[in-house]
Every structure is written in C-alpha cells, then in structure tokens.
Amino acid sequence: MIYLDYAATTPLDQRVRDAMLPWLDAETQFGNPASDHALGRCARAAVERARSEVAALLGAGSDEIVWTSGATESNNLALKGALEFRGLQGAHLVTSRIEHKAVLDTCRYLETLGVRVTYLTPGADGIVAAEQVLNAVRPDTTLVSLMWVNNETGAINPVAALASQLRERGILFHVDAVQAAGKLPIDLARLPIDLLSVSAHKLYGPKGVGALFVRKRPRARLAPQIHGGGHEQGMRSGTLATHQIVGFGAACGIAAAAMDEEGRRLTALRERLWLGLQALPKIHLNGSETQRAPGILNVSFAGAEGESLRAMLPELMVSSGSACSSATREPSYVLRALGRDDELAGSSLRLSLGRYTSEAQVDAAAARIVEAVGFLRELSPLWSADETA
After folding, report:
1. Which domain of life, per UniProt (predicted)?
2. Choice among 42, 107, 252, 324 that is catalytic
3. Is residue 315's pLDDT more than 60?
C-alpha cells in the first residue's frame, strides 16, 4: 500500500514515540504537571520544555503557547473566545468559504448568537487575495480568520501581507496554520498575527494534542471555553497529557531542523507526480500553480466518476478532500468555491506527500491512477462522445 494522505494525518515519527514512552511509565513519570511535588514538578518541566519547542518552531514566546486537544479546539477557542471577550452583539467577522469545517461551523454557530460573518470566495487559483479581505473590513469588524495553507489544494494565502494591515486597523487576526507549521517558515516575532492554530498529528506527532498561539504584546484576550482549574493561564482548564505534549514538542524540533531540505524534496516529488499524471489528457490542477505548499497536489480527472476511481485504487491511500468532510460523500465545497462544477469536483483526488514518500511510490501511484482513469474513460459513453465531438 502507498500512503498519499499526509494532509489528513501523518504517521508517528519513531523519534517522537521514543520521546513519549518514558512519560507513560507507571512507576516514575506519571505525575500530574499541576501537582506540587517531585513527580508533578518533573512532569511540569517536561511540559515546559515541549512548550519551548513548539514556540521555537513558530517564532513565538513560550508564554504565548496554550495547549489544546487539537486544531479544532484551537480554532473554537480563538473565534469564540475572542468574540465573547469583546461582546458578540454587533460584532463582524471576516473569513473565507474554503476554511476548514472547524472554522466554518464555528462561524455559523456564532451567527446564531448575533455575529455577522462575511464569507469571501477565493480566486480560481484557490487564493483569497489580501485586497479582498481589506475590502470586506468594516468599522465593526472585530476579527479576521484565514487559513495559511488550504488543506485540500495546498494554496498559500497572503497572511504575511495581511497581518500588518489588519494590525494598523486594530482588527484581530487568527490564522489556521495546521498545514503550514513545519512546512513553511513561521516567525511570529516579526509577523503581527494575534492567534494561530496548530496540531501535532499533521507534523508526525501524536493525535489528540494541539496548541493555540495567543499573542502577549499587544495582548489578545480570550474568554475561556473550558472552565475548571484555571490551567493554561486561565484560557483552557484540564489536566495536561504530558506524553502527548512531549511528543508534540519533539515533533516540532524535528520539523524545524529538517524543514528546508524536506521542503525541497517534497516539491520535487510533487512535480514528479504531476508530470506522471500528465500522460492523461483533460486533467485539471486545482489551486495555484506557484503559491502552494510542497506536499499537496489536487487534481480533477474529467470523464472518471470519483467514487469509481477511488474504488479502483485500493492500494493507494488517497482522498477526495478534507478527512473531516469525507463522511458527507458530496463533492468538495472547496473545489466548488474555486469554480469547479460538481462533476469535476467529484472526480478529484487530493494526493498529499510526506516524510516517508519515495520516488518509487510516486511513480507507482501515477501509473496506477493513469491506468484507472483510462479504464473508466473507456467505459464512459459520455467521454467517448465528448472525445469524438
């Protein structure tokens, strides 16, 4: 089997696993990080080391990292927390139609509480232009939420160009950086983003742990969404999972050290895969040709029904879009926002590459997809009629 779904989740790096295992020891390292005794202090020191490792990957201060259960919780805390702290009634929020469901569904919930939301449509290249965002801003705009890298197309949004302009207008800026962290350089010491969400399992760490960057200066204030013991500076109560947090920190350290080299390698593999698929006519690249993350390739195959295509590729672990939206069986809302019709959106494959992808796997995957699409097109009377027209 060939795994090409790294955008959905990444396998746990062996080095990360090794870092986590001691913190599952039933005799010596099981303390609660909030406990004020030897075992608790030992666990707390490990948590704080990991906090420093996550902060270093993001160019942030350690005291600006708040632990969460993952990016879904981070996004909820950022949006709900920021707007509740400032007052929901009359607030205006700007986001895009291609955000992750964790942002879109949160925005829809906030609308039921009186928040007004503007949903921007990206260009055909999958990018939300900075000018679009700035033109949508109003005097009552409290918050802008925009993903750095789209999880389906890999298109990179101009968050760097937006950050300083939103800061000048006094508008909070939240960025979902799940697909950017560990893949693209991030330096929050220089980039005035207020809130930024990340997740460990997208960069070879464990599932079930994430973080929200919350800027200290100028301070981004949030209303907590989970109440209890006042953990994480009062923003997120709950006993910390030391082993998961240690794994997250280790994963960030590994990603930071390998980012440049790995980015070049994945870009070369992505282009090799795209070249192999071009043995087929009438295929469509979804997203920007130039402004995109190294490891994501999204392609639509005209004349090949989507579910049939995926069924013919049991040995390839691929997807048609976000793992969080796959249960709906509907064409990708992201691709439809880019202007693809339902047929083309439904015939798309998201092929995402990662740390353990090889040239041989890429070549084998391209050959199997070309074979499967060719077979389906031969069976389709619509394709034959279209070709002879």
Report:
1. Bacteria
2. 324
3. yes
Q: What is the pLDDT of residues 52-82, one digit of tens each?
A: 999 999 999 999 999 999 999 999 999 999 9
208 alpha-carbon distance from chain centroid: 14
* Tokens encoding 114: 């009186």
Q: What is the pLDDT of residue 324?
A: 54
- Single-letter code of the amino acid located at 298: N
Active site residue 252: no
Q: CB of 345 within 8 A of CB of 333?
A: no
Residues 303, 214 within the same domain: no
Cα–Cα distance measured from residue 150 to residue 203, given in angstroms and rounded to the nearest whole number: 16
Query: 289 and 222 in one domain?
Result: no
pLDDT in tens, 324-345: 555 556 889 999 999 999 999 9
CA distance 12 to 7: 14
Tokens of 257: 């050290």
Note down the domain range covering 196.
14-254
pLDDT at 116 > cutoff 90: yes
Contact 193, 159 (CB under 8 A): yes
Pair 174, 188: CB distance under 8 Å: no
> How many whole angstroms separate alpha carbon 288 and alpha carbon 123?
9
End-to-end CA, the chain: 39
Q: Is the pLDDT of residue 223 over 70?
A: yes
